[in-house]
Amino acid sequence: MEKERPKKMRWLKLLAYFGVLILASVGLLYVFRHLGIMEEGFAPTLYLAVFGLSVLNSALIGVPVLPAMATMIAVAAEGDLVLTALIASLGGTLGEMTAYYAGYVGKRLIHLESAPGYGRLVGWMERHGPWGIFLLSIQPILPVDIAGFISGVAKLPLWRFLLPCWAGKFPKYLLVCYLGDAFLRIVPPPPFQLP
Q1: 155 DSSP 8-state letter
Q2: CA-based nearest residue to 25, from 85, 81, 76, 93
Q3: Domain coordinates in residue numbering, the chain
Q4: Where are the beta strands (DSSP E) in the chain?
Q5: How many degrees, rounded to 5, is the angle at CA 185 between CA 12 and CA 79?
């Protein structure tokens, strides 16, 4: 009974998170459509916003994903799905460089060798290298910052980190854009009109 309660709470939190993500995406999409942003030539600005939010979201550890994902889904629903995913994945990959350089520089400042599990994680990254980075990038649960930090600590060349990181983020974001767009197409418009 005690073990079921935390598991149920995790599922409820996850469900609430996706509900808020969907509501935020619907709200942004409604505003984009009402203001005619994509038709008025503001598409480059929205793509730049997707890029900037993706960079910030990946660069700042512990920042909620909600604003970046909601904007990405809303822009993909109004614009080009593949282009939105490409721009978001490039921004997200560049943002991961903060974790890489934190590991690169941090090893000198902090003696991580004594941290629990450090040796196991470094060994796993050394064994799997780019494939490990790719797997951490494509899955939605664990933060990619872990791979970036360990890659920096292991002094992996930057390109050997960035390339598999982008290769994992692009299909993940493409799937998010596609599913978000498909879901937004079946959601009815709000019952009210903006002035």
Answers
A1: T
A2: 76
A3: 4-186
A4: none
A5: 110
| Torsion 139-53-162-173 (CA) sign | positive
Query: DSSP state, 42?
Result: -
Contact by Cβ (8 Å): 99, 145: yes
Q: Supply 162's token pair.
A: 């960035």
d(CA 171, CA 187): 24
Q: What is the pTM of this model?
A: 0.76
With 0-12 CB in 10 A as exposed, 13-18 as middle and 19+ as buried, what is 155?
exposed
Residues 38-71 have pLDDT tens digits of: 666 777 888 888 898 889 888 886 666 777 888 8
- CB-CB neighbours of 191 under 10 Å: 5
